[in-house]
Amino acid sequence: MARVHVIANQKGGVGKTTVTVNLAAVVADTLGGTADTPPVLGVSTDPQASMLEWANRVGDALPFDFEQCHDNPALLGKLREIQQYSHIFVDTPGSLEDESILQTVLTQADDVIVPLEPEPMSFSPATRSIQRVIQPAGVPWRVLLNNWDPRDGEGDLNQTREYVEARGWPCFHTVIRHYKLHTRASAEGVTVVQYAKNRVALEARQDFFKLALEVLGSSGGGSPRHASPNSDGGNGVSTTGRG
Ligand SMILES: Nc1ncnc2c1ncn2[C@@H]1O[C@H](COP(=O)(O)OP(=O)(O)OP(=O)(O)O)[C@@H](O)[C@H]1O
Ligand SMILES: [Mg+2]
Q: Mean pLDDT in the chain?
């Protein structure tokens, strides 16, 4: 049976779609499979369908199968019954208006990934989303710090970590750094596994491989669906500069 990973934060623009597409791509690439039987399904439940547009631009090179299903409540509530994939990554809407979609999808989740930008302005909306919708779902969840630009220094990153730790929130060790490559990937119709072979692209890709290892590591052990998340702290951030 597939493990269903839901990427959620009702604050818009925190990187849900970026994380969903690239994590799905890296996991599919890592697990192998064939073009006819990819191990990963990507699902967009966002009526804005930005993942659909991205997937269409990638075309045949997309390393996972894809479904847009915001208007398919029957499928939304049955993701756990889909048999032929190892992992399903689900992008969700970045608005409060579509909360019923998120609520439905959370009933299907094995775990939830909550992208958070290291930017104090995004704390309150993320906190509301976690407390009101994500925690009550009773599924393991973890915050993922995304879009940190090492050129800005570690001030905001450390402040964000302190905020997360003060609330006792589980958090991924991996921090997804800001790279122009990620910002441009959708328009250019590529995912992280198709980036060019150069040092900067390698660094950008590395963050998603590290994240994939954390996600696969915690989903391979057959832990029960409503188990407590592993919330050990830690750093794991490489502050390598970008050329
Ligand atoms: N790590 C990153 N590096 C560079 N750009 C990023 C990164 N993460 C996100 N972005 C950019 O930030 C913007 C918002 O990201 P994205 O669309 O993934 O967020 P979202 O949470 O899905 O938004 P919405 O709530 O509107 O669906 C996009 O332009 C995206 O390319
Ligand atoms: Mg999105």
A: 89
**Does the beta carbon of 15 lie inside 6 Å of ligand 1?**
yes
**CATH code: domain of residue 62:** 3.40.50.300
pLDDT category, 204, cuts 50, 70, 90?
very high
Helical spans, DSSP H, in 43-132: 50-58, 73-76, 99-106, 123-129
pLDDT at 228 over 50: no
Q: Is residue 225 part of a domain?
A: no
Segment 154-162 shows an average pLDDT of 96
CA of 134 to the centre of ligand 1 (A): 20
**Sign of the Cα pseudo-torsion (72, 74, 79, 85, in order):** negative
Domain with 136 in it: 3-219
Position 143 in a domain: yes
Q: How far does residue 83's CA lie from ligand 1's centre (Å)?
A: 30
Q: Is residue 234 a part of any domain in this protein?
A: no
Residues having C-beta closer than 5 Å to ion ligand 2: 16-17, 50
Residue 94 domain flag: yes
DSSP-derived secondary structure for 177-231: E--HHHHHHHHHT--GGGS-SSHHHHHHHHHHHHHHHHHHHHHSS---TTPPPP-
Q: According to the model, what pLDDT value does residue 33 have?
A: 76
Q: What is the pLDDT of residue 52?
A: 98
Quick check: 211 pLDDT over 80? yes
Q: How many domains does the chain have?
A: 1
Is residue 176 within 6 Å of ligand 1 at its C-beta?
yes
Reading the block at residue 33, the tokens are: 């499979």
Rounded distance from Cα 107 to ligand 2 centre (Å): 20
